[in-house]
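Kindly inspect this today.
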Amino acid sequence: MISVEEIMGHPIPEGAQVYRSGDAVAVVLPLANPSQFEVHCAAAPCFRGKRSLDAFRALISDFWLDHPEAHELIGVMPIENRPARGNAARLGFNRFLMGYLPWGNGEKRLAAAYRLKRVSQ
């Protein structure tokens, strides 16, 4: 089985919570606002398409169940990553920001930020 790090393409940040279904993963990190979390979803090449989208939906659902305090998921991706941006839209995320944003290594990259609000029960 392929590792989470191999699926994501980089090491998992300290303090991240990992959700996994087959070769699809969601890595979730708390943000400064306790009701917001950052999420990154990825799938192995052999697990892409409808199968990965269904898995991502289930992983996000599991996250909501585990975190009743959470009201919003935020995803940030490079603007040129069209597949990720398309998947975000298919999963119900709405773009709310696009511009040169600080990246993990201190540089700024042209990126798009998407948000998904918890659906009221």
Remarks:
- DSSP finds three helices and six strands in the chain.
- The beta strands are 17-21, 24-30, 36-43, 72-78, 94-102, 108-117.
